[in-house]
Design goal:
rod-shaped
Length: 43
């Protein structure tokens, strides 16, 4: 039982970390894309 709980917690932490990493990467690329579009539109 204890092992199951430990693995469950580890899995949740791993999922949260990967989700955070993917989210930050996505928002960064999105910001860069909108910024480049804005710069192109200003020209």
């Amino acid at each position: 039982m204890r092992k199951m709980r430990f693995y469950g917690f580890g899995g949740v932490e791993f999922l949260f970390k990967t989700f955070k990493h993917a989210y930050s990467n996505h928002s960064l690329s999105y910001l860069r894309h909108t910024h480049s579009c804005w710069m192109l539109g200003k020209k």
